[in-house]
Amino acid sequence: MYVSRKDASQVGLIHICTFILLKLSGERSFGISLNRQFKTKLPCDLPLFSGSHADLVSITLHKIMVNGSQRLVPLYSCFLTIVCNFSPYWRSMSLVASVKLVNLFELFSSPKFLYSSERAYQNLKLLIEVFNNIIQYQYNGNQHLVYAIVRRRDSFESLVNLTLPNAFNQCNTAFPDSAKPRLDAEMEDRAAEVAAISMQDVDETGVPVTDTATTTDKDSLKKSTGRFVPTEEWMTELKSTLPLETVSRLLQHLVPVVDDMCQRKNGVVDEKEILEVFKDITMVGLLPVPHAIVIRKYQPNQYTSIWFTAFMWGVIFLRSQKPPIFDGECIELFNVSNDE
Fold first, then answer.
1. How many CA atoms lie within 13 A of 119 on its CB side?
2. C or N: which end of the chain has fewer Cβ atoms within 10 Å?
């Protein structure tokens, strides 16, 4: 996936790999096994890191999103769902993976992305769920992520304190009347429809659960026309959809601790010192009641079945030219229905 991220001819391959990862990430045993130390040398220029296979997956998907083909944009929600699925079991996130995930939060919460379409905040929702899962269930051992969140607290606080006038001004600044969003909003909405059909929310034991926010999102899919402009209804939905309380509580408790350390040492504090302090701090009783772990399992459906069928037969045909097993002139690429 990493090597092929910029190759337009390999988009199908990345789709296949994505669905495989999506299928695997729905299994608890797979999420736990990703904690195994990663020691293999890969034949590509992935960022150097010392960590687990979970770090490898998240760093790779981050690179595809920030440095891949535009044709992969509809897969962003699938990439983030994969990380979200195994995040409750991620025991120790590397420094590199921590920084990359928080960088993604800053990217998707920036005006250029947040106001690119009516539903662009769905990527933020998945990222925040990743942070919440780790803070609530894997706090010990994940000081790197906690520190990365504290360092970028302004990005989180600005989203928590976002008001409609501010959103309106940010949107107009990011997208003047003459400018078009970088992302195709209509394409994103179509991808969201297929994603909603392809996912089923279940608990750790595989029992289906009802997620009010998710259900509302699936039922309220709309087609955007023209440039998106924030409204009161959109702001209300944004605030109710993004689960920011856990991160807010974390920042409320830890930011004063870091500020106090900096004040006592005249602003010269080593990163290792802060990480050591975080190890000794407990968040028991300070965070909201832990949420239930929700896994989004892949569900086969007619849309993905049609895509897989077309892709696989395309591969079979192209790889069967020498010798030519199939007569290309006799293959019907499209079925045309004639009501008459």
1. 27
2. C
